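Hello Y.,

Per our agreement to keep a running log of every chain we model this quarter, I'm adding this entry. I've kept the format consistent with earlier entries: sequence first, then predicted structure.
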Amino acid sequence: MDGPPGASRRRVLVAGGGAAGFFAAIECAQSDPGADVELHEATSHLLAKVRISGGGRCNVTHACFDPRQLARGYPRGSRELIGPLSRFGPEQTVEWFRVRGVELKAEKDGRMFPVSDDSATVVDCLVAAARQAGVRIFTGSGVKAVSRIAGRSPNRLSVSLSGGGEDLAESVLIATGGGRVPKGMEIAEALGHTIAAPVPSLFTFNIADPRIEGLEGVSAPCATASVRGTGLRETGPVLVTHWGLSGPAVLRLSAWGARELHGANYAFTLCVNWTGTRTPEQARGCLESERAERPRRLASSSNPFGLPARLWERLAGAAGIPAGAPWAGVSNERLRSLASQATECELAVSGKSTNKEEFVTCGGVRLGEVDMATMESRICPGLYFAGEVLDIDGITGGFNFQSAWTTGWQAGRAMSARRLPGAAGT
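Predicted structure for the entry above:
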């Protein structure tokens, strides 16, 4: 490890060894090579979320290059992110990684991954870039508290580290994420910031229902999921899991409804239209045509909606149609019941599960208390925020990492430009 920095060097301390923290530290050190930039991670694992993201492939960003359109993917922070995304968005992210040897590819749904399909490619790139820029990295070293220094050094902050001792810095970045123990939010609150209480976002729904039990891995390619009694509604793939339902439509629903569903203690009625956007009447018309055109085919194994065979069998059974019944033997009453099962299937949700190993929170430092052009606190000069510690969170598909790159890049650039105490003009 390097020795103590010279007294005349700019001191920048980054709390949090995740995506936002690394990006900020790299940008700051590159923009001001004379600065002493330290990155402190409380655990022994750097870039933990980057490693597990996208099933170990790392969903780096989303292939949407219009800032206003991209900002619509953030249930919290949408309006405030338009400016930052205009300065450093997916286009800049792709180029940033490209010049460092990491090529990204876009998939049909807009998600962007390294061509290696291995998150280690992204992790290694960030660590190498940080070391090359001169960032000093400390693991097992968390930030416990930050305080202002009055009097002789009004432009400096005092930092208390978990390993013991105090440190001084002109700039301190809090990029500790949301997580289950939001330490960064506690630090911000102690300095006078308002915190929107963190609650989970991007989670799957726990459902015990015979219509989906045992169908793990079955997916409806285009379904509409909604929460009864609310305006929450999303259309997209819905996946059956061991615990209930997941997939893009469910995850987006959980993001937009994070606070509302938390308030309901995750006990609510989910309505699923397995056919997408068809009404019960339209579905019944399709089924009547199926019955008229294919009277001898088994109703439980023939459907006009392109649904998975095993799911269709369950829906037919729930409508009271015997497994061996041909379409000709299905009464109008059973047909109406099947149309209802296909388009307005009600399922009781009784809890949530984390999406894979990822954990995303809604909530954090109120954005009105942060200068979104620099990510500097409006309450405590010299204090900066980036990433999920802010009241920003996105839907699934690379949006959360993009906000980490964007806010981290802005904070790093702003910290590098901040004047030293006593410099001319201060």
